[in-house]
């Protein structure tokens, strides 16, 4: 009997996961852990970047605001400094006052009052009575002369006023006025230090001009006209008040400080604004913000000057000529207003320029239109036989550097120009635009080297 071998029994299923399954599970766990760490790392980097950007943006904003506020003081400081140190500037400031009708009228009234105060009308009437008696006039006529004090006073006032008006309105007075102010250029410095031995002084809260030399000229003309008693008018040093305020001493201190820092404050403002722009995350936007901040500061300063003028005229002392004081105020701040307009124009032009180099649709269309127009003109010129050659290749290669040089030269011109005006700013802008147009025209678009003509380049 043959025995048969029973078939082998199938293997029993494994009690746990296989090795491949365990490897796959470990891989998934490791991948999940890796992803988790990557997410944590990215989150940390984003948080650090946000904090970094926040610090930069905040610092940039603070610096730009500081520069905008200091720009206001810088313009005032430069004006105060120029009035004290620049003789020609000072003469150009006060010189036109000699031909101002309001100032002439006020000086005429003041000098007329001083001259009449020095003529003894009663003594003059007595002299007439004695002269009439000596020449044998009837006693009744001599008594009538004694009643002529009023008419004589009125006639003298009219005579003296006419003489003073002719002196003040003559071209000789303009020359005397300018020369006197040129010799007394230290007037503002005298005012700032409180001294009063100048043609312009501050005393008892008043700024006054000595019109004694005008009295001397009037005296000579009256004597020449036959008014003998005028010869007895002594040398008079009378003052014509053009500014009066209880706050003169405080204003004097502020102007002194501005005069000291006037040379350095503009440089400091530029450096602070540049630091604010450099620190910003979006520097072009920061440049626009800085320019608009300076423009707003100039607008505020202009409004402040208008308000100060009204306040100053409202606080004039009794008897002061409001029209003359207003004319003097306008003359003294004339160049300050010019500086405000010039700086405001530079700031506005800078903001517009920074906007036009940006990615906005208006800026892109503007640049594209200008480029196409200049390119068409260049193509026509080249077709007509204009050789660009090496010049075109040079401009194409160093185009950005040439643009930087143009802007740098314009900035240096404006910064070093003595007392730039709006006209100077506009002409500088026109020249800059012409220079950029010439640069675009000379840019032939031809690479400087053959290897640069490859598609990779």
Automatic annotation (TrEMBL):
Residues forming coiled coils: none
UniProt organism field: Streptomyces graminofaciens
Transmembrane segments: 60-80, 261-281, 288-312, 338-357, 401-419, 425-442
Entry keywords, A to Z: Membrane, Transmembrane, Transmembrane helix
Identification of the protein by name: Membrane protein
Zinc-finger listed as a keyword: no
Region (Disordered): 1-32
Biased composition (Pro residues): 1-16
